[in-house]
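re: ur msg from earlier - yeah i can do the NAP complex, just paste it... oh wait u already did. ok heres what im feeding in:
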Amino acid sequence: MSDGNGSRAPVTIIGLGAMGTALAGAYLAAGHPTTVWNRTGGRAGDLVSRGAVEVPEVASAVAASPLVIVCVLDYPAVREVLDPIGAALSGRVLVNLTNGTPAQARETATWAAGHGVDYLDGGIMAMPPGIGTSDAFVLYSGSEDAFVTYRRELELLGAASYLGTDPGLAALHDLALLSGVYGMFAGFVQAFALAGSENIRATEFVALLTPLLHAMLADLPNWAERIDSGDHTTGVVSNLGMQATAFPNLIRASRDQGVRPDLMAPMQALLDRGVTGGHGKADLTVLVELLTSPAPTKGTPA
Ligand SMILES: NC(=O)c1ccc[n+]([C@@H]2O[C@H](COP(=O)([O-])OP(=O)(O)OC[C@H]3O[C@@H](n4cnc5c(N)ncnc54)[C@H](OP(=O)(O)O)[C@@H]3O)[C@@H](O)[C@H]2O)c1
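and the outut:
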């Protein structure tokens, strides 16, 4: 949002960890008057030399801009910082880019509404060096007015996607996406540990792992189609029963090699549940349904 004369809207950033510093840097680079506040003072040196104004009181930071962006460690920290200054935030747009759950986002939106604050929740899908580049995207949900009014400013951080008025939607998407990432990280850890148990260098092994993972990723749209259609049995080429038979080898070999199989054990349990539940001929995609249905109690079928 500009004032029509081309001058940039003032922006306040609360929280100067790695991410908050990157966010403030993006606004400075785009010529926005940028006010910053951090619980521990003295972390804004570089930003100040680039033109940011660091203030000692969070209420003064909020008073400086109609657009206030908070990015601290977690939601309890958000509330610790903002609860005492609800009145100062009244009439402003608050964009919360702190990682949290949908329930925390909705609670914070309710708190904001009670103080007359226009609230947008967000999930940053980038690391700090990616902020402001084409690699970054940020998910938003909550006040559509706030998103429309400040879309241009939000786009400075990365591609901005608005997901709907339910303030919990950005956090839900964020955490679902991170689940994919951390599931992959768990696989990376196990794979490098198992290869390393025979002194295979990670830098050699990665040349094999990378193309295999690319091939698996290329199949992801087929997963999505099966999941949306609910058809897990047509045209199956790698059935669950076969995979449930092969998977224990991974666990056994890990143990034999002195590598803890802890990260893989839950997957084994889910595969076994699929087989005992009669899904041996189905695609692995059926596991999504098993994960969202209650685990059977002893003595009842899966
Ligand atoms: N870094 C990433 O790659 C990344 C990527 C996507 C999303 N995020 C999310 O962005 C948020 C910030 O991450 P970060 O990387 O900037 O973390 P960080 O470098 O560890 O910084 C944490 C920030 O939170 C502040 N803080 C912690 N507890 C506080 C409290 N009780 N009251 C006030 N301030 C408090 C810290 O202030 P002090 O300096 O006073 O300790 C600092 O400014 C997190 O929710 C994170 O999940 C991070």
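cool cool. Residues 11-164 form a domain with the Rossmann fold fold (CATH 3.40.50.720). ping me if u need the other ligands too
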